[in-house]
Predict the 3D structure of the following.
Amino acid sequence: MKILLLTSEFAPANGGIGTYAREIASAATDLGARVTVIAPDYAQGNTSGDGSLRFEVLRFPGGLHSMQDLPAKTRLVRRLLRTERHDVVHAADWPFFIPVALSRRLTQARLLMTVHGTEINETQTLLKRLAIRGTGVFGARTAITANSRYTRDLFRERFAVDSEQIKAVRLGVSDFWFAQESGRAATRAAFGIAPDRVVIVTVARITRRKGHPLTLAALSTLPRELRKRILWLVIGPNGENDYVRQLRHLVASVDCDIRILGALPDKEIRDIYGAADFFCLTGVPDSSGRVEGFGLVYLEAAAGGLPSVATAIGGVPDAVLDDETGLLVPPSIEDIAGAITRLTEDTDTRSILAAGASAHARALSWERCAAETYGLPRAGIRIAVDIPDRLPTGTQPHPADSAPQVHPA
């Protein structure tokens, strides 16, 4: 199977869509597909890591997407589809939906589009709705995958498509997160953490919708004796400046042991998971329309052996299974405090949930995600796909028109 995967976010830019594109391309390659990823170059010279990947990466001149990039992306897709035959053309993010739709007559490939959550709300403006309707983005021959049941249902609410046209395919977790280089005792010693401390870890950008103040407020309500047993490690890059300042002020004003560590390399985060006792991320509803489409970080923590305390918003219930891999609670101080208390005091429950979290993470591999998404065979199971045998009636070859340069990385 030949797969053309188009993404507007890829390394060296950081983000969930970039992770998705890289991991699903790697997994599909491992399952025997020939994958070509088309991604921005973010200015040449920043893509030296492409050569170590197991699939081909072709870069086009560009950076983070804006609507002004649509004409260039449309010319790019048309050129690619006229140049080579593919079995699947996969728009891994919203910016390539319209270019792929406008080019559908040039290919017999199965057209696939993935929705991640927030962009479903962002495409509800009048101009974008008209563009989607006018170009027939979600028309015939287009299959849609969503990263969670929540995202699938949100898409169904916003767009009138056949329920059979969209399916939920949960994301996967990389094998990287299962293997720690340093043991629990060594990592604790390196960070100056006493063996008897209960360590809670949060990994997320410090931004409003991630709900750090909610966790902080819950911790501050605990009895002093219990609170003094807990160390909370906060890992992640800064978001809005005013929000970061506010959080740091709150941290300094409460009687809790909290360390804001900033952004850390994945290897260091992985070792911290091995030294911690449970993960906690208490996201909150965001009035701006941004949503938590899935919550991959919960799976990464689970691979490190950590159960989670999580708020049941967005697609998080697909990443954290209540009373199986962690505790799902409403986004309230009282409920979060109760969940933290339970996992701090009840070591048996913590151990049972940790085992469930690890098993859940192993079950949600990227190979499974790629197999379900593309219909690739895995472990003796073949997943049927519907790929047309020939171009639709009326399709004619066209001479190549001008397009942005595409160059191997």
The domain at 175-363 is CATH 3.40.50.2000 (Rossmann fold). The chain has 16 helices and 14 strands. The first strand starts at residue 2 and ends at 6. The chain has two domains: 2-172+366-398, 175-363.
